Amino acid sequence: MTSFDHLPKFLAAAAREFCGLFIRHQFLRYLLVGVGNTAFSYGTYAALLLVGLDYRIASLLALVLGIAFSFITQGAVVFRNATSVTLVKFVVAWSLIYIFNIWVIALLMRVSMSAYLAGAVAIVPVTLISYVILKFAVFGRRVPARRANPFR
What are the pLDDT tens digits along the chain (152 aa)? Predict the structure, then answer.
């Protein structure tokens, strides 16, 4: 008996399929975990704007507060490779992603978008860029090259 057996058959099948997809597909895990990370970070950003901080400082503090939670969720749940080495890479990567995020927000604010809306719109390009950077530069596992056998 699985935990879905109490559901109608069609819902149980859908739930099992979704869980299977979640386990098998890294990008889906990234998106779902990212929803929680983004809600936390954007909520922090908006709250800091509300208390009167400049958008650059609000974004930096939201980033710093979200890094620990994001590292655990992304490193352990999404990429399954959270180590002390990947933590250092993670912090460096997010420093660069922060600069990109500020650039996007500033660009959007130049076209008369509020800091609140600009921060929300910036989520889309920042999410895509961060996935690529985290997947390949931070959590990517390098497979050691096999030595070529000259006698084969």
Answer: 456 666 677 666 665 665 665 566 788 888 888 888 888 888 999 999 999 999 999 988 998 888 888 898 888 888 888 888 999 999 999 899 999 999 999 999 999 999 999 999 998 999 899 989 998 999 886 555 455 444 44
Looking at the whole model, is its pTM more than 0.70? no
| Distance from C-alpha of 74 to C-alpha of 90, rounded to nearest angstrom | 10
CA–CA gap between residue 152 and residue 144 (Å, rounded): 19
What whole-number distance in Å separates Cα of residue 120 and Cα of residue 134? 21
**Which residue do the tokens 């503090």 mark?**
61
Query: Is residue 87 a contact partner of residue 71, using CB atoms and an 8 Å limit?
Result: yes
